[in-house]
Amino acid sequence: FLKHRVALHAYVLMDNHVHLLATPSTQRGLADAMRMQGNNYVQAFNQRHGRTGPLWQGRFHSSMIDSDGYLLSVYRYIERNPVRAGIAVSAEDHPWSSVHGNLQRRADPMLTPHPAFRALAATARNRTTVYARFLRDVNASADLPAIR
């Protein structure tokens, strides 16, 4: 993603698909990054595991995010995906997710916090507390003033 100047904010790898929250800095950045990922990563994974064919189900799809509240809801949607799929009790139980980096449980050099995510609190420690609460409360509003 770095090569194509795409900031990655959240991700989760599932058995047959992946969810990404990313911000490209160029018009072609995201499409080029996904193409490279599809060519390079999938080939390497298949070779390493003695398999062939596509790694994920379906084609690349993207959606525009038009507000900070929606963006924070997408962070939560992505990182809670394993819980909804029934393969984890909590988001933190799934090892292939950005939740560990976004909750400051381990360093994740792939992640770039979005400005709306940074706005949750002035310090990383407070941001972690606020985001952890928001992540667990699926009924919480994503309006920034309401979750501070």
Reconstruct the topology from this structure:
Elements (H helix, E strand, L loop, with lengths): L5 E8 L4 E7 L4 H21 L18 H12 L1 H4 L14 H4 L12 H4 L5 H13 L7 H4 L1
Antiparallel strand pairs: 1-2
Compact summary:
The protein has helices at 29-49, 68-79, 81-84, 99-102, 115-118, 124-136, 144-147, and strands at 6-13, 18-24.
Question: How would you describe the shape?
Answer: globular
User: Count of helical segments?
Assistant: 7
The span between the termini is 31 Å
Overall strand count: 2
Uncertain stretches of 5 or more adjacent residues: 144-148
Radius of gyration: 16 Å
Q: For the residues shown, what is the average pLDDT?
A: 85
Please estimate the helix content.
40-55%
Give the helices and strands as they follow along the chain: EEHHHHHHH
| Major beta-sheet overview | 2 strands, antiparallel
- Summing up helix and strand content along with how strands pair, one would put the structural category as mainly alpha
What topology, given as strand order, has the largest sheet?
A: 1-2
Strand content: 5-15%
Report on this structure.
By secondary structure, the protein is mostly helical. The chain has a domain at 68-147. Helix content is 42%, strand content 10%. The protein has helices at 29-49, 68-79, 81-84, 99-102, 115-118, 124-136, 144-147; strands at residues 6-13, 18-24. The longest helix is centred in the N-terminal third of the chain and has 21 residues, at 29-49. The protein is globular and about 45 Å long. The relative contact order is 0.16. The model is unreliable at 144-148 (pLDDT under 50).
